[in-house]
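Weekly sync, protein design subgroup
Attendees: M.S., D.O., the rotation student, P.L. (late)

Item 1: inverse folding check
M.S. brought a backbone from last month's batch and wanted to see whether the design step gives back something sensible before we order anything. D.O. pointed out we never logged the input encoding, so this time it goes straight into the notes. Structure tokens as presented (189 positions):
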């Protein structure tokens, strides 16, 4: 499994160092920036799974920055840190950046570690779900083509309990025909 890349953005380097210390036991690659502009350059050059940004920075707020990240890199998980417990800042971060989590400074290191792990796990599950859905659609299309070429071939008779009823006098021939149809269809797909 590849190491996740975490981008830490704060105009105070001691904060990014503290975040790195909190996450040091995790298998992550850390990138740091002291401004939203510097962070945008890093994002353009590196695939980043998680961005953790300070809210109050000179030039651009963290919520505005994460709003840009959401538009340009929608699959990147966005989290925000704030020294101010303002409802307005939290609402802005949620609305503009669609943040995964809003932390208050100083944040609990255990909470930070758990939240990043949980976010990355959620992201992997979503990717797996999309992959499985694509595979399902591919297989459903293949079966639909087989059924189109040989109507009734995929029909199964079942009893009142849902068990498949097999007419043994014709089962072997139909099974062989079905396998040949599927193999042909898979070769064309």
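Designed sequence read out in the meeting:
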């Amino acid at each position: 499994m590849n190491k996740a890349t975490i981008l830490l953005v704060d105009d105070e380097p001691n904060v990014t160092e503290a975040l790195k210390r909190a996450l040091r036991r995790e298998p992550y690659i850390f990138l740091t920036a002291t401004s939203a502009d510097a962070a945008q350059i890093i994002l353009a050059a590196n695939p980043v799974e998680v961005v953790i940004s300070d809210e109050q920075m000179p030039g651009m707020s963290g919520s505005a920055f994460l709003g840009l990240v959401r538009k340009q890199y929608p699959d990147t998980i966005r989290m925000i840190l704030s020294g101010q417990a303002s409802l307005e800042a939290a609402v802005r971060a949620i609305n503009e950046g669609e943040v995964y989590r809003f932390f208050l400074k100083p944040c609990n290191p255990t909470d930070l570690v758990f939240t990043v792990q949980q976010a990355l796990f959620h992201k992997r599950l979503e990717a797996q779900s999309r992959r499985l859905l694509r595979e399902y659609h591919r297989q459903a299309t293949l079966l639909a083509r087989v059924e189109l070429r040989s109507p009734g071939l995929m029909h199964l008779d079942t009893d009142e309990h849902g068990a498949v009823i097999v007419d043994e006098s014709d089962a072997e021939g139909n099974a062989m025909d079905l396998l040949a149809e599927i193999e042909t269809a898979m070769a064309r797909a």
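Discussion: The chain is about 55% helix and 15% strand. The chain has a mean pLDDT of 84.
Action: P.L. to compare against the previous round before Friday.
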